[in-house]
Amino acid sequence: MRITSYTIEGDPILNDVVYKNGVIKYTYDSSRDKHGGKAKGKYKTQCKKIETREISGDGEGDRTEYILTGCEEIIGTHDSDNEEIYILNKWK
After folding, report:
1. Can you give the three-state secondary structure of 9-75, one letter per residue?
2. Going by C-beta distance under 8 Å and a sequence separation of 6 or more, which residues neighbour residue 76?
3. Residues 43-68 as b or e (16 or more Cβ within 10 Å = b)
4. CA distance 33 to 85
5. Would you say which domain of life the source belongs to (predicted)?
6. Which one, of 90, 91, 88, lies nearest residue 5 by Cα?
7. Are the C-beta atoms of residues 48 and 24 closer than 8 Å to each other?
8. Residue 15 burial by CB count (10 A; 0-12/13-18/19+): exposed, middle or buried?
9. Angstrom distance (rounded) from CA 45 to CA 70
10. Most CB within 10 Å of its CB: which of 21, 31, 48, 66?
11. How many CB atoms are located within 10 Å of the residue 30 CB?
């Protein structure tokens, strides 16, 4: 599955999630981000689970967050403290 998001400037950020043989392979590709600086590039990791979290009352609107947990490396849009990678928000 490919999830494409865009920077404020309109550059694509690609998130590829592939589930095969009990393993979730995740690729974060910011190589097309013209304003990404030195950190832009293509990064890969493997994760154990995709989880959902219901969010409300935080001022951004009610939504479902889809996150990857149990990852070998924390890459892309993430929360380092909780070792979670954010892959999608679905607003209600």
Report:
1. CCCEEEEEEEEECCEEEEEEECCCCCCCHHHCCEEEEEECEEEEEEECCCCCCCEEEEEEECCCCCC
2. 15, 26, 28, 30, 43, 85, 86, 87
3. bebebeebeeeeeeeeeeeebeebbb
4. 19
5. Bacteria
6. 88
7. yes
8. buried
9. 10
10. 66
11. 22
Task: Read off the amino acid at residue 22.
Answer: G
What is the C-alpha separation between 75 and 54, in angstroms, rounded? Answer: 22
- The structural domains of the chain, with segments of one domain joined by +, span 2-91
Tokens of residue 40, six digits: 């832009």
Q: State both tokens at 77.
A: 């849009």
The tokens for 18 are: 């592939």
For residue 30, give the amino acid letter: S
